[in-house]
Amino acid sequence: MFSACVASAVVASAAGQAVTFEFYPLRPLAGLDASSGVGINAKYTVVGWSRPANSGVRRATLWQLCGGSGVLGYSEGTDLAALAGIASNSSLDSEGFEINNDETAVGYVEIDVSGSPFRRGFVWDMGEAVYEDIAPFASGATGESHANSISDDTVPYVVGWATEEGDCFGQPLREIGFRMAWVGSSSTPSALPVDSTTETARGNDVATGDSGRTVGLRTECPLNSACDPSFEATEWTGGSTPSITSLNELGPDDGSQANATNDDGMACGYMRAEDFDCVTHAAFWPSTTGTVVNLSDASGYPLERTTEALGISEPSGNGVVLAVGRDSILLRGLLWIGSPAGPTLDWTYVYIDDLMPPLSAWTVSVAFDVTDDGWIVGEGGCGSVTRAIVMRPAPGGGFACPGDVNQDDDVGAADLSILLGAWGQDEPVCAVEIILCDMNMDGVVGVADLSIPLGEWGNSCSMCSSSMQSMQQSSEESETLDALAEALAALGFGSPMGFVEWGATASLEQLASVGSGLAAVLDAKGGE
């Protein structure tokens, strides 16, 4: 569960109080130009895809943000498509959808059959270096499958859909949901039951510790658009012979889909709007015995807009639940916050990019997943750039590593140089290192920000600390603070704070000149 302090910070954001999230755009694979993050685990490993800017061909990608060799926010991804045997110049698609805490990821890859692409659900077991596709129920090479989710059980469950042979209104194949215990290359999917041979189904998400409880949808064959009134949000429970529960019975009576579930029995997705043609609203099911909540209506969101909830957290220690998704018309990511109000939850919403620092010009178009401690992953952009976006809670309205503007886990001369170069910046920008220069988040890079890296000089920071902020200063790092003081003294400043006071009235030209001199002195001392 995410901590009470993080939950309070998120709720404060929705109320228009302090900014409580910092963000990190994730680089696409080398040679590619765009990326998107779809799933994130409790170790802050992200899966999604990378692609060229002017091409729709996607390559499944994994970013290890914490504990890996990359720096958070600038981490180079792992090419999951290559691990699945797809050549770098291939026109075959692949995507990563979810990853569990044992670093086993699921998604799909395309295979070539006589010049035509066909999807296969895929499992990347990073710990065991086992990479396997999931066979469809239908015989022959043209059957398809897709893996959507994986649990954190000791023997994890994988859920998704696969085609099987059958008459689907003249079509030879129909989609049917599956659930599979992942035991390596010998794993075999089992079909999720449906009510008739004319139904099709998908398993969208699976809970942990609940015998593979799965949520998704059933509908009359063939599978059409979200406007189809036959869509029926569904939960499958039980072991070898799962039972079916229609979430439609909790309202509405038609047109709904469950996209995600947590281990507390809650689910989220969408429901058809009652008064608008072909409009869907984000939906929350508190359990299989509670009435569905229209999140648009409950949170005061405009009812004429199409929304969908795609991810959900566990309840926090004080009962707060987070759901994330999007407005499909405005193309903006949404965060819904459910705060306990007696036996129910009181819902509010916030656009996720409104939680970004004041100097950020980035937007978030969709949020796909949220961790139990409040990290959000999705897709965003700035100008012509599209990136996987990770949003990280920063309780107290400040950055987790103050002063580390270049995100190399240390506060030093490089950070000060960037800050001085951004001096006076008061308009939103795309460059993350410039955005991070506004350390007090007042919307301008100035003297108040200058004092922060000087105060943290020589510190090392763990961006992924569970305490959200872990600044350590060793005796060796203290020497770097002494070196800074000596360098400033050589330029005529009696102390770091004397430099800050001078900077309050200095011109940009003076700051640039002193910044260059300071960097030169520090470089010379580093070479001694």
The 3D shape can be described as: elongated
State the low-pLDDT regions, or none. Answer: 1-9, 11-19, 68-74, 466-478
The largest sheet has its strands arranged as 1-28-27-26
Radius of gyration: 25 Å
Sum this structure up briefly.
It contains 9 helices and 30 strands.
Structure description:
The protein has 528 residues and is an alpha+beta fold. It has a domain at 413-526. Helix content is 16%, strand content 37%. The chain contains nine helices and 30 strands. The chain has helices at 4-14, 80-83, 295-299, 413-421, 432-435, 447-455, 475-490, 496-503, 508-526; strands at residues 21-26, 34-40, 45-51, 59-64, 78-79, 94-99, 104-113, 116-125, 130-134, 145-150, 157-168, 171-181, 190-191, 199-206, 214-220, 232-237, 243-246, 256-261, 267-272, 280-285, 293-294, 307-312, 321-327, 332-341, 344-351, 363-370, 376-382, 385-393, 460-461, 471-472. It has a four-stranded antiparallel sheet with strand order 1-28-27-26. It has a four-stranded antiparallel sheet with strand order 2-3-4-5.
